[in-house]
């Protein structure tokens, strides 16, 4: 393959990938395409096969069948991937007795991290917001700090494909900001990022496309905007200056239904109204409220469009724990 063709090829191309553990089919004919410079989300219920697929991309496991191409190079039946692939599954592997800086320096001394000079270590720590704790031992780090240090370790390789398993686990708002900034910056520079997450807000903020797995099979793969459109009717929380008028107008808007609970005028929380319907019906309600002189103070989905689509496609409730089925 010519260099120009390799550059134009997807960072990841998987076709009919299968992987079983005994009698359990973790992956059953999975297709996946991830473009260079794209953040691609991988979501699904626990046990759907996400971790197995991430492990294949990192060379931690070998597929039983199918074709896998990473960074333009076919991946065979050995535990190996091309240079330029970095990331972690089930949390980063770190030395708890060493400091953050010592961890990165140790990794930089290995052959595959030979680009990690002292300057590179300090820069990686700064990017993920760990400069102030660079000389603290990792055993005292929180989960979120460990996640950020794992990301810093991946940055040392200057990856062309970054694979992250639940990178937002344990992050406070500041840590989340650092991680999001690093991921979007890498994608802008041409790095492909594949991340697994149960957090729909992270997916909406970061991902151009998502792939949803259920029982080892792909039930959706495509742009986030298309996934959101498939969510159908949603419940919206409505706060206005006149809840009685809002209730009346919502009841009169075609396609909308007011959530059960009686007349809002008779309840102490009368300011909040929940309505259900498709987006065009919600738009029509907003127009009617404005025409009636009713101020709209808040309008937000009770469940995000991405989460609603997730529930519809998988028939399950997304987990919100930090634990993941190892398969």
Automatic annotation (TrEMBL):
Keywords linked to the UniProt accession: ATP-binding, Nucleotide-binding, Transport
Molecular function (Gene Ontology), one example: ATP hydrolysis activity
Pfam families per record: ABC_tran (PF00005)
InterPro entries given in the database record: AAA+_ATPase, ABC_transporter-like_ATP-bd, ABC_transporter-like_CS, P-loop_NTPase
Entries under SMART domains matching the protein: AAA
Residues of the ABC transporter domain: 12-240
SUPFAM superfamilies in UniProt: P-loop containing nucleoside triphosphate hydrolases (SSF52540)
PANTHER family in the cross-refs: ABC TRANSPORTER, ATP-BINDING PROTEIN
The family this protein is said to belong to: Belongs to the ABC transporter superfamily.
Full protein name: ATP-binding cassette domain-containing protein
Species this protein is from: Microbispora catharanthi
């Amino acid at each position: 393959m010519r260099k120009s063709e390799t550059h134009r090829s997807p960072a990841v191309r998987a076709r009919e990938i299968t992987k079983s553990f005994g009698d359990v089919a973790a992956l059953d004919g999975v297709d996946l395409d991830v473009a260079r410079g794209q953040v691609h989300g991988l979501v699904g219920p626990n046990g759907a096969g996400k971790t197995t697929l991430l492990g294949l991309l990192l060379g931690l496991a070998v597929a039983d069948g199918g074709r896998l191409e990473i960074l333009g190079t076919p991946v065979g039946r050995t535990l190996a991937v091309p240079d330029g692939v970095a990331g972690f599954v089930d949390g980063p592997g770190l030395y708890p007795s060493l400091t953050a800086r010592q961890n990165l320096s140790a990794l930089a001394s290995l052959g595959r991290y030979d680009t990690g000079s002292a300057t590179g270590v300090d820069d990686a720590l700064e990017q993920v917001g760990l400069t102030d704790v660079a000389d603290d031992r990792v055993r005292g780090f929180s989960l979120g700090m460990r996640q950020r240090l794992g990301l810093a370790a991946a940055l040392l390789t200057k990856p062309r494909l970054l694979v992250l398993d639940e990178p937002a686990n344990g992050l406070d708002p500041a840590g989340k900001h650092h991680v999001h900034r690093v991921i979007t910056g890498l994608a802008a520079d041409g790095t492909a990022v594949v991340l697994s997450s149960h957090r729909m807000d992270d997916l909406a903020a970061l991902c151009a496309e998502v792939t949803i797995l259920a029982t080892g099979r792909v039930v959706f793969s495509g742009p986030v905007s298309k996934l959101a459109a498939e969510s159908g009717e949603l419940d919206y929380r409505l706060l206005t200056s006149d809840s009685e008028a809002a209730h009346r107008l919502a009841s009169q808007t075609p396609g909308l239904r007011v959530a059960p609970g009686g007349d809002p005028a008779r309840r102490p929380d009368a300011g909040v109204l929940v309505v259900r319907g498709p987006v065009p019906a919600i738009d029509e309600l907003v127009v009617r409220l404005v025409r009636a002189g009713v101020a709209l103070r808040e309008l937000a989905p009770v469940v995000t469009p991405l989460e609603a689509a997730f529930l519809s496609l998988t028939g399950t409730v997304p987990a919100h724990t930090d634990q993941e089925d190892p398969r």
